[in-house]
Amino acid sequence: xxxxxxxxxxxxxxxxxxxxxxxxxxxxxxxxxxxxxxxxxxxxxxxxxxxxxxxxxxxxxxxxxxxxxxxxxxxxxxxxxxxxxxxxxxxxxxxxxxxxxxxxxxxxxxxxxxxxxxxxxxxxxxxxxxxxxxxxxxxxxxxxxxxxxxxxxxxxxxxxxxxxxxxxxxxxxxxxxxxxxxxxxxxxxxxxxxxxxxxxxxxxxxxxxxxxxxxxxxxxxxxxxxxxxxxxxxxxxxxxxxxxxxxxxxxxxxxxxxxxxxxxxxxxxxxxxxxxxxxxxxxxxxxxxxxxxxxxxxxxxxxxxxxxxxxxxxxxxxxxxxxxxxxxxxxxxxxxxxxxxxxxxxxxxx
Length: 350
Known about the structure:
By secondary structure, the protein is an alpha+beta fold. It has helices at residues 2-21, 28-38, 44-64, 72-75, 172-175; strands at 78-90, 100-114, 119-127, 137-138, 148-160, 163-169, 191-201, 204-214, 226-237, 242-254, 269-270, 273-274, 280-290, 299-309, 317-326, 337-345.
């Protein structure tokens, strides 16, 4: 009987790995060990030990991405999501009559995976409507269900270590650096192609971002509106605690004679169509100071951004300045950040 056990125990373990790693056969390992228990080959305790150890082994292989039974892209899959509830009060006319109370909800669910050494894929869903500037939904309409939209879906390709190419509907923060929301609302996910290049040089680094975005599509016109941008920039470590980052963005925005969806009503128009193309230049700087107050604050930032459009001849610029204290990102328990931004944006941009 001992010889039989010595042969059966490794065999059962191997078969358990195969069956448990594939949900379609997950229950068969239990059937197998139960039969061996019935025939006296294994004791009940030995059978339970095999099942437990095998599950732990499979789980460890999946976490490490080393399972031979599950596709590699599935093992590399990462999920993320968040839920936000808030009460919002608006009083644009500065009187109690025009005040508006709203309960709002935002839900986001995303996934990303590494398809190979050079290719990554990411996609996400979010509450909201067709408005690209908001993923919030208001509590209203007698408990009506809320819409879920495609927030982003893109491929990422790394031909060399310094260069990353993107295609699809992308997260803006990955392809274009901006210290404020002067020009880009945080919820906007541009559509098109982009390239991100960076090179580290001693205590500093250089980067260059560029892309082509589709703004609209028309079945009756062949020359649709689009946006092209070029953004050279740098990041300079002044000392162990102080660093400076800056960039100069140039936007080519072809929008003249088009009535584009979701464009701001404050833009200068001829009838319902845009009067100008709004090519723009935008410099930006950000100074970061780590541990400025002996451990009381993780870091402090000062930042500013300016934009100037080639058309029209007036109401053609904007600027923003701000301060931030706390952690660089609030993505875990105990993280915090206080941020203040003052901005002035004239009516030429959308």
